[in-house]
């Protein structure tokens, strides 16, 4: 049995069990998330709060929709981006990036 780090229950429910729609959503995820992660990485390295907020805010609901637990790291990044709170966001980004890299491999394998 393959171990997966995502849960498509919400995507399937949203699609009304339309397998073509689910595949489209997965392929969109595979296409868009790496680009957004790259932009988020630049914003994190530059300590660009507005950029971190923008890209974390952009990916967080998608991660929630796909049942990906690391949406919590995206939420922490988003919070940092819209506040003056001093946090070590690099750790959250590294965990988010590693987790999503593994999930992208799993989704490509499964779809």
From TrEMBL:
Keywords: Phosphoprotein. The keyword Lyase does not apply. Signal peptide: none annotated. One of its GO terms (molecular function) is protein kinase activity. The keyword Phosphoprotein applies. Residues 18-111 form the HPt domain. One of its GO terms (biological process) is phosphorelay signal transduction system. PROSITE patterns: HPT. The modification Phosphohistidine is found at residue 57. Transmembrane segments: none annotated. It comes from the Bacteria. This is Hpt domain-containing protein. It comes from Nonlabens xylanidelens. The lineage of its organism: Bacteria, Pseudomonadati, Bacteroidota, Flavobacteriia, Flavobacteriales.
